[in-house]
Amino acid sequence: xxxxxxxxxxxxxxxxxxxxxxxxxxxxxxxxxxxxxxxxxxxxxxxxxxxxxxxxxxxxxxxxxxxxxxxxxxxxxxxxxxxxxxxxxxxxxxxxxxxxxxxxxxxxxxxxxxxxxxxxxxxxxxxxxxxxxxxxxxxxxxxxxxxxxxxxxxxxxxxxxxxxxxxxxxxxxxxxxxxxxxxxxxxxxxxxxxxx
Length: 196
What we know:
Blueprint: E1 23-29, E2 36-43, E3 50-57, E4 62-64, E5 81-88, E6 94-101, E7 108-116, E8 119-121, E9 139-146, E10 153-161, E11 164-172, E12 177-178
Antiparallel strand pairs: 1-2, 2-3, 3-4, 5-6, 6-7, 7-8, 9-10, 10-11, 11-12
């Protein structure tokens, strides 16, 4: 039968346990603890905008990581943050990607934060400005995964480039977000005239 990973995670306030609507959930398993971590979109209790929240099971309850499950969450900015995805790296650090509104340019961009040494940090400007996507077109629907060889995250997303939707990709090399054969510009990975 289906069982909750910890008591109460499937009833009452559940994992999110907030007064607002909690939507867009994604989960992954921590490879070190074999426990699930869950991300979702929720209403910021401070500024009222949408933020990205996260909690991780310790085997007994779902816990915040540096206030990631309350207040302004792990995204912690004044713009609209939504549609998260999560992946754990080989050392058990959660990496979260999401869609955010670039206030300066007015378009949607892809942002990333990684939990490390007790804090949610950026990776080379990945959660401010134009983020990982680094363009002026609309970037949505991120998917994050970890390279098993390098241990670094790669992110794919849908981008409205050159008048149609294409699939873009960038990978972090430890210092910067790199394209693979122009995978993060022009017509990206999909490179066709249809809607990708």
